[in-house]
Amino acid sequence: MNCKYCQSENVIKYGKYKGVQRYFCKDCKRKFAGIDTIPKMQYPTDQVGRPDIENFEVAMKRDGRNKGIFVGFSFSGEAEKEVRRIEREEGLEIDLVLVSDIVEKQLNGRMK
Ligand SMILES: [Zn+2]
């Protein structure tokens, strides 16, 4: 578990609130709920979140790839942070591509 705010690993468990594990970051002194314990229902189903990126990372490692493209309708801030972390710490490169961008490029291509 890394700190949600500063990505530090200097994080300790800080009790539970309403059944959700909470953490305390010793570096930036902030408290936050564990990402993995937040019910997925809180995310719009079409938004790619951090767990999706983590699954993708596992799949990339399993296939021995160091470059991947993740296509989605939208990406959460946590998902983008996770991609940067993976790039920095694992040396894997993941491109986040929005479906809307692909559609736009396709349409622009057709208009030429
Ligand atoms: Zn922190």
Mean pLDDT reading? 84
**Count of extended strands:** 7
The domain count comes to 2
| Inertia-based shape | elongated
Distance between the first and last residues' Cα: 48 Å
Write the layout of secondary structure elements.
Blueprint: E1 11-17, E2 20-25, E3 31-33, E4 47-48, H1 50-62, E5 67-72, E6 74-75, H2 77-90, E7 93-98, H3 99-111
Parallel strand pairs: 4-6, 5-7
Antiparallel strand pairs: 1-2, 2-3
Helix pairs in contact: 1-2
This protein binds zinc ion (ZN).
Residues 3, 5-6, 8, 25, 27-28, 30 line the site of zinc ion (ZN).
Essential attributes:
alpha/beta; elongated; 2 domains
Structure notes:
With 112 residues, the chain is an alpha/beta fold. The protein has 2 domains: 1-38; 39-111, no CATH class. The chain has helices at residues 50-62, 77-90, 99-111, and strands at 11-17, 20-25, 31-33, 47-48, 67-72, 74-75, 93-98. The strands form 3 sheets. The protein has a 3-stranded antiparallel beta sheet, with no helix packed on it. Strands 4-6 form a two-stranded parallel sheet. A two-stranded parallel ribbon has the order 5-7. Helix 1 (50-62) packs parallel to helix 2 (77-90). The protein is elongated. It binds zinc ion (ZN).
